[in-house]
Amino acid sequence: MKPTVARGVRLTLSLLILVFLVIFATKVNWHDIGRSIRDVSRPLLLGAALVNLASVVVKAVRWWVFLRPIGATSLPLALRATFAGAGLNNVLVANGGEAARVVFVSRSAHIPSAKVLATLALERLFELVGYVVLLSLAATFLELPGNLSHVKPFAIAALVGMAALLVWLLRRPDFVETIAGPKPASWQGRLKQYGSRFIGTIAQVSSGPRFLAALLLSVAAWALQVATYEMTAQAAHLPMTNVATIAALLAVNVGFALRLSPGNVGIFQTAYAAVAVAFGMDRNQAIAVAFLIQAQQILPVTLIGVALAPEFIFKARKRRKDDAMGEIPSASRR
């Protein structure tokens, strides 16, 4: 895509998001929302924030499971990169922190970025697997409202597809990396070499025990998110049931792979409130709870990310520019 076209698309999307946020802001009762936030139980809210932080730690451990076979054996490094990447995701659109944490681990552990990217791809895959498992179980065993009750066939189909993909990764034919010889002169050759490293690493780290560990960690991470949502609702005196909480979690994470606004602010509140209203909850009180959930997900995680990896947070933009100009060639030199 040409730069002018890309800038035009970004500008149009930004304007649409701005219009949506303005409309959202004019449709809510800010007085009621402020009152709900002021009346919150601070001990319960603090507990929910700690549970949310625990879910980020679990995700870092899940990534570490795949990083260890490629030589990145430091769990603190995985934790630093995960928190810093999550912090960047909170202030950027389209989950920009994911690409940046690949660079961080690659440069810190002196491992080709293609290999780190492959481990991150598997970690993100199991995030999706956990979501699909939760969606399938909820659609099968819980009474969901409205359109959510009709997703059962799609959820089961997605679960079968995920299982088939994981089985294929485990039973795939052996793959041999073709990285010997001098560095390719053309960008096509470097891209092919980068792809070879990426696919070879996925073949290298795919194993039954690692997949089982990643699956269990994914279930734990999503369970901690359910607990975070439920504790926050209780702190704000919103009587959300377990079923309503799970339905809200599923709804707000439908587009977790792509954030249309920094932190998905506005979009998150709209989705959460829609589910809460479907369960008979007050809309403005639900929006207040959604703001509190996001405050826990954004503020502590971003602050910890800055504390653990300040150079990563503040220089991420420059690094992304450097990567766009030469990350693939530099990886191929290793």
Topology, element by element:
Elements: H1 3-26, H2 30-38, H3 42-67, H4 75-91, H5 96-109, H6 113-141, H7 152-171, H8 187-205, H9 208-235, H10 242-252, H11 267-278, H12 283-308, H13 310-314, H14 316-333
Helix pairs in contact: 2-12, 3-4, 3-6, 3-9, 3-12, 4-5, 4-12, 5-6, 5-14, 6-7, 6-8, 6-9, 6-10, 8-14, 9-10, 9-12, 10-11, 11-12
Strand content: under 5%
Distance between the termini: 30 Å
The total beta strand count reads 0
Total number of distinct structural domains: 1
Shape: globular
- The low-confidence parts are 319-334
Largest sheet: none
Can you characterise this structure?
By secondary structure, the chain is mostly helical. It has one domain. The chain contains 14 helices and no strands. It has helices spanning 3-26, 30-38, 42-67, 75-91, 96-109, 113-141, 152-171, 187-205, 208-235, 242-252, 267-278, 283-308, 310-314, 316-333.
Features:
334 residues, globular, mainly alpha
Entry summary:
This protein has 334 residues and is an all-alpha fold.
